[in-house]
Amino acid sequence: MQTAVIYCRYSSDIQTEQSIDGQLRVCTEYAKNHGILLLDTYIDRAMTGTNDNRPDFQRMIKDSNRREWNFVLVYKLDRFSRNKYETAIHKKTLRDNGVKVLSAMENIPDTPEGIILESLLEGMNQYYSAELSQKVKRGMRETRLKGLYQGGGLPYGYKVVERKVVIDETKAETVRFMYDCYSKGVTVKAMIAELTAKGILYKGKPFAPNTVYGILGNEKYSGAYTKGDEIIDNIYPQLISIDTYSKVRAKVEKNKFGKRSIKAVYLLRHKVKCGYCGRPISAETGTARNGEVKRYYKCIGRKKDNNGCIKTQIPKDFLEEFVTNAIVQSMTETQSLDIIVAEIIRRQSKEKKRKSENACQ
């Protein structure tokens, strides 16, 4: 009996699991009607077909090396890919492993004419994807030229009224307070403490430092922001003067990560937390009585908060070598490599999706 696996995919978060259910149902019926035994399913959710950065797709191609099945069964060829060049490459890999791609909804004969039909369908799939992207970008640009809100994240201090972004005066006062304080040298930590004492919270919790830095670095508050080579100044009302924004932005860039030693690079800076109290581990430098410089990592909780943490300081070279060796050992394990590759693909897909959405704004 001929054997097959099913590959299913849908493109965006606005689609649902029902899309996968429909593809599975049609493919299962096709296999039953043609006497094909189904062995496995591979499913990618909210993944574009314009590239192959899809975890289950890559896993399927890799699994074909085992030569355990004869076909990859898809609802339509556009589920497999919308990029005709990548389609050719991956079909070649599958073909070398004795595997053929079958479309349940497109009757492609196994004849020379079928080769032409399949190539035409693949070209049309890529054309449709490119045309749709072009139309979306054109529509978003027209919306932008009209000064209308295009969706996505809305900066703190604004709200939308009838598709227009307007200033939310209640929250805007907090934004102005942050810029005023920071321009006068007030630290983010002290700023958050004062806001919390006044009962001003962010989503029910005290402001996090990263949230504050994000507000202090968001150029939309100045009334204009750049997108590629375009300056957009007709969507967000000015909440902070350009001079104040420029002054604060410069200080943020200079102070956000603190002072860095020019004589030594701490590999684990901002990357380690204390196993006892959970506070960050900071990079420290000291000088012994004989003048020798000592470099080490120390728990901020013990150093600044006096929270009773018992974590002693660790020599810089010892901790960095220990962590580096542990990472190298972990990355050489097959299971770890599979996890890392899958996570890289997931993050790349997420980043490409984010850039694509931003490109349409």
Residue-averaged pLDDT: 82
Strand order of the largest sheet: 2-1-3-4
Provide the β-strand percentage band: 15-25%
**Cα-atom Rg, whole angstroms?**
28 Å
Separation of termini?
52 Å
Shape: flat
Task: Report low-confidence residues grouped into runs of 5 or more.
Answer: none
Count of individual helical segments = 12
Q: Portion of residues in helices?
A: 40-55%
Care to describe what's here?
By secondary structure, this protein is an alpha/beta fold. Helix content is 48%, strand content 15%. It has twelve helices and eleven strands. A four-stranded parallel sheet has the order 2-1-3-4, sandwiched between helices. It has a three-stranded antiparallel sheet with strand order 9-10-11. The longest helix has 34 residues, at 112-145. The radius of gyration is 28 Å and the shape is flat.
SSE map:
Elements: E1 2-9, H1 17-33, E2 36-44, H2 55-63, E3 71-74, H3 77-80, H4 84-96, E4 100-103, H5 112-145, E5 158-161, E6 164-167, H6 169-183, H7 188-197, H8 209-216, E7 225-227, E8 230-232, H9 242-255, E9 281-287, E10 293-299, H10 300-305, E11 314-315, H11 316-331, H12 334-359
Parallel strand pairs: 1-2, 1-3, 3-4
Antiparallel strand pairs: 5-6, 7-8, 9-10, 10-11
Helix pairs in contact: 6-9
